[in-house]
Amino acid sequence: MKKKILISFFAFVISLSAVVGLALAKGTIKIVVNNQTVAPDVAPRMIDNRVMVPISFVSKALGANVNWDQKNQTVTIRDNNQPQQEDIWKEELDLSGSSWSGVKNLIAVYIAGYDSRDDELIKSVTVDGFDMIPIGGIYPAIIDYNIIDAQSTKNGIKVRVKVISNEEKLREEIWDFDIAKGKIQKWKMVNSADINSYAVFPGLSFKNN
Prior knowledge:
Strand content: 35-45%
Oligomer: single chain
Order of helices and strands: EEEEEEHEEHHEEEEEE
Distance between the termini: 21 Å
Helix content: 10-25%
Number of helices: 3
């Protein structure tokens, strides 16, 4: 699993002046992100006539998620406004717009019911005997979710969803839904991991305390 740490080394040369402005004033380099001056934890530097700023700080100020892969010595930056998704099942689905809309809406209703502990709402989109209905207890709040892939099955379609939840910690979970005949047949969590931060969009981010 990727180990996520704050990256503070200098590796990002600002070139998009329309987004991030840098100014020299009295020997101090300022960073302006979307017309607001921000103060990084590590000061920018001028090296060989190039301005170097902390990659993690600027990326997160722009609403991106930054991760560090210790094993592969790799920094990855993901812009939440342009999600980069893996084609997990590598299948070209032949679905009409209305068919996909129906599938998407089933998942949206289930997640709304799950998040609000509304048993009747969940029952409205699941088959009789469906056993993943939250009753009582404390469940984490779902702060975001994205459908990331789908594949055809013998009787219908399987849909994979990435869910970001928050209780005491932020977590990224992967859920699989089996859908057939206009109902959710099965639900399964296939992966779960703690994450350090998540930007829903620029201006709304969540971090572990």
